[in-house]
């Protein structure tokens, strides 16, 4: 069968963010799959070193759009551990409440994207309509739909009053009934099951070797959930079940994510019932004493690891952010061995990749000229011709062809 | 005797050069300093019979005259042991640990791209995370390196 | 039991329901009351300590001294990330956030707004 | 001569089909949106899309063969329009009819699928090649059940001409009820022919960008879009003519309105089916067609053969 390489990305309708995969195909079968990441690199780790701790709280929030609270809480926990701050229980409860609301918003978003990847746009429309309920609640609680900015070093910035608690419980009741409907759809819709089961198989032994985290690992029967193993925030006082599944494939991941949604609703009602009274923040010093800390957070996609090293000034010395997608992307190559091309989008979407988390470093323009300067279209055009001419490929006759065309 | 102290005693019993190098910061967090050449033996022992079956990540540090590399390993029940080694800046070579953890490849490529360390034994693959036309010799995460993005484009 | 077209009842029933989407520019959607929108600055209360400039993650605010005890804030909405950290850092409460979020404009310069002090003579202060 | 030219270009011909096709596309998209609880596009959206496409410059890839690249959309459009003349719509007999025009209509309806394949293959881009191969595999999967299920009513009427079938069925009023099973099989295979969601594998935008139409742009893409809309109308009216041949003898105005209702109800069925299913993979689609659709259409033919013995001529 004639083999050819299909480039998918960096711009491709199936991929929400720029990453590029080269897939060696023979007919419809995928023979080899290689990923090239780093397109969404913004230099957050270097930028953290140039900003104060207060500014970094908002910077780490912008690592990723859908798990912004996860990254900022993870960073803030590490800084509080170094500074030895004991944040009030009410702040812990509010932080966990916003974290679970974000998990609901992220899983519903994933449910819609998965539906779209397999061509089931109705599921996308309905899942994202119901997601608006939780987005409005988050806007009411924290003042913004996506980057909530509820975290600060030493606690949270906004309190929650009684009628907000009533709104949240009403919304959670409605969402619970909608999620139960989606569980029934996932279990009974023939074409959806056909497209999801048996796809992207990941055996339990591969999970440990390749280091998969989050729903991707739990769908292969590995019971690893940072909220249970290494409890932070208010998770120590909540009782919830870690959802695992033994389908080892994309269908299992769907069921795990839906199960986690139902668990989140239970947790939120527990939080709302016994949220303790008291202050919501503790005075934090501007200069954090020297030290280092590793903090983990169970983001919707898996386990976030932040390593923060401070040197006594008001700027951190080193911030290392390891997002869950970096661990999960290694498993995609294994899952796609001799599957067919039609499964590629849904397998990539199944680990719920968030590439803005994964790439975090500076893209620098024009380093050769010392100072950064803006290049107009013509400079860029002529620059590229010189650059190629220096390498022996002369595009200049292209200019003549262009002029002839433009005349 | 908490779990952390068990791990500490076993490490110190097995490797006497770790005498006072292992310190417990809080529950489920242990920091240990190791010399670069003993890293593999400690790693091997920890993975094989101490249950550290999961590599969270590898962090690179630029400590002025020396590069620090911290290996974060974790067990099934959430304890993280951070092994820190120091390698000289003029000869920054490391051996890869991809035979224990295939997922370490991405973290080690980050060390190579951002700090300029040399990791031997890495399988062939594309570089991560910097683009291919990144000028050679520029290592962004080193302390002395300043980003050129002007204030207008969001630099501070 | 598995059967095809599981969502058919839900889908047909939504034929008779009001659509969930609304045509944005024609009927506006009101945001909750404490929504973090554009920041406004009150020159009277400012004492020029520049703490807000230090704490702003995006470097969007710039306080200039225009007279004795009179300050002017030059604000770049293009860079502001609407985190409202400056409203908390300012202990004189000179900065407040409004609910306004429709701030798009075609020209970056129009996004730079300056709140200048009242031009009354300094003698009376 | 003038009459036939008029009927080719104006009334049951190009202009009428274009208007009807665009309005059917609007109804399809609006119903699809309302089923998904969305507001949906305004009435002039399909016309606006067409005008936008026709005003854009169409780029032909360098290695592509320009002649074939430009010819395929025109071939698709003409094939769908000519097949409309042989289908009896609101009078008992079509514009042109002869014994055997059923085969001509079915052949003309496979020409668009062939032109998608050639268009995709000749644009030499990776994605369109994969899309082209998928169009062909899908063609072989749904063609046999479609042919069988349309053959059954013809067998009952003992003719190869659509018009004589219409005459036969209006003479024997309730006979068309026997073909209900064939109608459902034909409706599902019509989804395959029109490349609607459960079977829009050749144009799966999340896998292979736009499948066969990846390299097409501007006027050529506009022609392809138009031919797909008209194919929706022609397919629906073929199904209406074959499976719902009642009410043709009443006065022309009512017959025309009844024809519109029949076609639009089939379009509504297509968009409801389009809403509730996910897209199948190509291998799942092929074995679905051969494992379920083909046996059902053979069953339909068996029923017809058994019935022919009892029914009085």
From TrEMBL, chain A:
Cofactor(s) needed for function: Ni(2+); Fe cation
Positions of Fe cation binding: 67, 357
Chain positions recorded as Mg(2+) binding sites: 45, 321
Domain (NADH-quinone oxidoreductase subunit D): residue spans on this chain: 118-286, 287-360
The keyword RNA-binding is assigned to this record: no
One GO molecular-function entry: quinone binding
Keyword annotations: Iron, Magnesium, Metal-binding, Nickel, Oxidoreductase
Binding site residues for Ni(2+): 64, 67, 354
Name of the protein this chain belongs to: NADH dehydrogenase subunit
Record lineage: Bacteria, Pseudomonadati, Candidatus Omnitrophota, Candidatus Aquitaenariimonas
UniProtKB/TrEMBL annotation, chain B:
Protein name in UniProt: Proton-conducting membrane transporter
Organism domain of life: Bacteria
Gene Ontology molecular functions: NADH dehydrogenase (ubiquinone) activity
Domain NADH:ubiquinone oxidoreductase 30kDa subunit as annotated: residue spans: 33-148
Homology family: Belongs to the complex I 30 kDa subunit family.
Region (Disordered): 133-156
Gene3D superfamilies per UniProt: NADH:ubiquinone oxidoreductase, 30kDa subunit
TrEMBL record, chain C:
Coiled coil (residue ranges): none
Superkingdom: Bacteria
Keyword Iron-sulfur attached: yes
Keywords, ordered alphabetically: 4Fe-4S, Iron, Iron-sulfur, Metal-binding, Repeat
Entry-linked PROSITE patterns: 4FE4S_FER_1 (PS00198), 4FE4S_FER_2 (PS51379)
Gene Ontology molecular functions: 4 iron, 4 sulfur cluster binding; metal ion binding; oxidoreductase activity, acting on NAD(P)H
GO CC terms of this entry: membrane
Limits of the 4Fe-4S ferredoxin-type domain: 37-66, 71-100
PANTHER family documented for this protein: NADH DEHYDROGENASE UBIQUINONE IRON-SULFUR PROTEIN 8, MITOCHONDRIAL
Record-given protein name: Ferredoxin
């Amino acid at each position: 069968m004639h083999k050819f390489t299909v480039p998918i990305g960096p711009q491709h309708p199936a991929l929400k963010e720029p990453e590029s995969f080269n897939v060696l195909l023979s007919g419809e079968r995928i023979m080899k799959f290689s990923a090239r990441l780093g397109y969404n690199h913004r230099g957050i780790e270097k930028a953290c070193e140039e900003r104060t701790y207060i500014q970094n709280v908002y910077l780490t929030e912008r690592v990723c759009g859908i798990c912004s609270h996860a990254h900022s809480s993870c960073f803030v926990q590490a800084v509080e551990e170094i500074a030895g701050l004991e944040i009030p229980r009410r702040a812990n409860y509010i932080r966990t409440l916003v974290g679970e609301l974000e998990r609901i918003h992220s899983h519903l978003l994933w449910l819609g994207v998965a539906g779209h990847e397999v061509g089931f746009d109705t599921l996308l429309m309905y899942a994202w309509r119901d997601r608006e309920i939780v987005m409005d609640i988050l806007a009411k609680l924290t003042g913004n739909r996506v980057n909530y900015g509820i975290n600060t070093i030493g606690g949270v910035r906004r309190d929650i009053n009684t009628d907000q608690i009533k709104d949240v419980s009403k919304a959670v009741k409605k969402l619970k009934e909608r999620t139960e409907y989606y569980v029934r759809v996932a279990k009974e819709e023939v074409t959806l099951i056909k497209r999801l089961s048996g796809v992207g198989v990941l055996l339990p032994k591969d999970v440990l070797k390749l280091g998969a985290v989050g729903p991707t690992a739990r769908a292969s029967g590995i019971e690893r959930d940072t909220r249970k193993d290494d409890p932070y925030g208010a998770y120590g006082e909540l009782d919830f079940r870690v959802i695992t599944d033994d389908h080892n494939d994309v269908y299992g991941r769907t069921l795990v994510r839906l199960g986690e949604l139902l668990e989140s609703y239970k947790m939120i009602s527990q939080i709302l019932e016994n949220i303790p009274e008291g202050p919501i923040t503790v005075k934090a010093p501007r200069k954090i004493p020297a030290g280092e800390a590793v903090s983990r957070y169970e983001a919707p996609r898996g386990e976030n690891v932040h390593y923060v090293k401070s040197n006594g000034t008001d700027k951190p010395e080193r911030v290392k952010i390891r997002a869950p997608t970096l661990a999960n992307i290694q498993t995609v190559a294994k899952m796609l061995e001799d599957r067919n091309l039609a499964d590629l989008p849904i397998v990539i979407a199944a680990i719920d990749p968030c590439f803005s988390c994964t790439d975090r470093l500076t893209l620098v323009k024009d380093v050769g000229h010392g100072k950064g300067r803006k290049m107009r279209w013509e400079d860029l055009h002529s620059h590229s011709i010189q650059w190629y001419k220096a390498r022996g490929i002369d595009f200049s006759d292209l200019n003549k062809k262009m002029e002839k065309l433009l005349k | 005797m908490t779990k952390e102290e068990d791990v500490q005693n076993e490490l110190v019993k097995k490797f006497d050069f770790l005498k006072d190098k292992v310190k417990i910061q809080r529950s489920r967090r242990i920091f240990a300093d190791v010399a670069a050449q003993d890293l593999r033996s400690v790693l091997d022992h920890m993975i094989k019979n101490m249950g550290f079956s999961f590599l969270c990540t590898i962090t690179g540090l630029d400590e002025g005259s020396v590069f620090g590399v911290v290996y974060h390993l974790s067990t099934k029940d959430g304890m993280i042991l951070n092994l820190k080694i120091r390698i000289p800046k003029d000869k920054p070579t490391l051996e890869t640990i991809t035979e224990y953890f295939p997922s370490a490849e991405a973290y080690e490529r980050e060390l190579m791209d951002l700090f300029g360390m040399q990791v031997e034994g890495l399988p062939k693959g594309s570089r991560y995370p910097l683009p291919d036309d990144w000028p050679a010799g520029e290592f962004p995460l080193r302390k002395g390196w300043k980003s050129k993005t002007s204030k207008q484009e969001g630099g501070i | 039991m598995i059967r095809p077209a599981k969502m058919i009842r839900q889908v047909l029933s939504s034929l008779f329901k009001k659509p969930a989407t609304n045509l944005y520019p024609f009927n506006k959607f009101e945001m909750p009351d404490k929504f973090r929108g554009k920041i406004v600055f009150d020159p009277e209360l400012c004492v020029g300590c520049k703490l807000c400039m230090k704490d702003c993650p995006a470097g969007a605010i710039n306080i200039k001294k225009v007279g004795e005890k009179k300050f002017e804030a030059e604000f770049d909405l293009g860079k502001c990330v609407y985190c409202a950290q400056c409203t908390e850092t300012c202990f004189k409460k000179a900065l407040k956030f409004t609910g306004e979020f429709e701030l798009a404009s075609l020209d970056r310069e129009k996004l730079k707004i300056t709140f200048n002090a009242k031009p009354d003579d300094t003698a009376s202060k | 001569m003038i009459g036939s030219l008029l009927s080719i270009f104006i009334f049951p011909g190009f202009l009428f089909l274009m208007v009807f096709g665009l309005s059917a596309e609007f109804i399809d998209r609006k119903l699809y949106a309302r089923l998904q609880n969305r507001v949906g596009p305004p009435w002039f959206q399909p016309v606006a899309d067409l005008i936008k496409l026709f005003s854009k410059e169409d780029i032909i890839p360098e290695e592509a063969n320009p002649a074939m690249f430009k010819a395929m959309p025109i071939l698709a459009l003409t094939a769908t329009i000519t097949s409309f003349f042989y289908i009896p719509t609101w009078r008992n007999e079509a514009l042109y009819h002869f014994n055997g025009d059923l085969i001509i209509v079915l052949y003309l309806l496979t020409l668009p699928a062939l032109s998608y394949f050639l268009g995709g293959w000749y644009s030499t881009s990776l994605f369109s090649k994969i899309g082209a191969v998928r169009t062909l595999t899908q063609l072989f999967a749904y063609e046999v059940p479609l042919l069988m299920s349309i053959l059954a009513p013809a067998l009952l009427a003992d003719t190869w001409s659509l018009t004589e079938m219409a005459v036969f069925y209006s003479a024997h009023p309730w006979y068309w009820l026997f073909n209900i099973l064939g109608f459902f099989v034909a409706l599902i295979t019509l989804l395959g022919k029109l490349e609607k969601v459960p079977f829009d594998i050749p144009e799966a935008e999340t896998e292979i960008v736009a499948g066969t139409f990846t390299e097409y742009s501007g006027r050529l893409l506009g022609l392809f879009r138009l031919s797909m809309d008209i194919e929706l109308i022609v397919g629906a009216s073929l199904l209406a003519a074959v499976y719902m041949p009642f009410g043709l003898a009443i006065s022309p105005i009512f017959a025309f309105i009844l024809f519109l209702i029949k076609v639009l109800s089939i379009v509504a069925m297509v968009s409801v089916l389009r809403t509730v299913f996910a897209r199948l993979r190509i291998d799942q689609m092929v074995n679905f067609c051969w494992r379920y659709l083909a046996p059902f259409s053979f069953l339909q033919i068996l029923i017809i053969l058994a019935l022919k013995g009892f029914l009085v001529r």
